[in-house]
Amino acid sequence: MNDKFFNEIRLGNSAEVALMLKENPELVNTIDQRGSTPLILATYYDQIETAELLLNNGAKIDAVDASGNTALMGVCFKGFSGIAKMLIEKGANVNERNSMGATCLIYAATFNRLEIAKLLLENGADTTAKDSRGNTAFDHAKMQGVPELISLLGTDD
């Protein structure tokens, strides 16, 4: 049952996911073999309709996968700005940290996601947060050599 549920999520088959949730509401926060929740999986596959369905059925918005990444972190490195906006509007924590201390803003800077970085900053992302190596989002932007992100995130002061 869980494998079918997770496959329907990957495919973005919201109608089937809704039926399965109606029959088994506890599926909404189950975990797959890789440690991902249904919401994390839906967002990783850019399935916004399915992600909204899961949230409307009680999915925990800041639940983490086996690496400590939230759904919002995943879309920050994948670059899915529409889902990022939706998750933030629904209350996702923009300053959550994973097991390596990385934040959504650090991911956005590392993977050159300018639009998402702007969105995170508009919603209170902490520019001073450091990962386990002591690097901020600004440091990651400098390492990647992305002038727009370097300018957006500040200076060395």
Any overview of this molecule?
- With 157 residues, this protein is mostly helical.
- It has helices at 2-11, 14-23, 38-44, 48-56, 71-78, 81-89, 104-110, 114-122, 137-144, 147-153.
- The termini are far apart.
Categorize the overall geometry. Answer: elongated
Sheet with the most strands, sense and barrel status: none
DSSP strand (E) fraction?
A: under 5%
Gyration radius (Cα, Å) is 16 Å
**Fraction of helical residues:** 40-55%
Protein name: Ankyrin repeat domain-containing protein
InterPro entries: Ank_Repeat/CDKN_Inhibitor, Ankyrin_rpt, Ankyrin_rpt-contain_sf
Keywords: ANK repeat, Repeat
ANK repeats: 34-66, 67-99, 100-132
Produce a short descriptive summary.
The chain is 54% helix and 0% strand. The protein is mainly α and 157 residues long.
SSE order and pairing:
Blueprint: H1 2-11, H2 14-23, H3 38-44, H4 48-56, H5 71-78, H6 81-89, H7 104-110, H8 114-122, H9 137-144, H10 147-153
Helix pairs in contact: 3-4, 3-5, 5-6, 5-7, 6-8, 7-8, 7-9, 9-10
Keywords for this entry:
mainly alpha, Ankyrin_rpt-contain_sf, 157 residues, Ankyrin_rpt, 0% strand
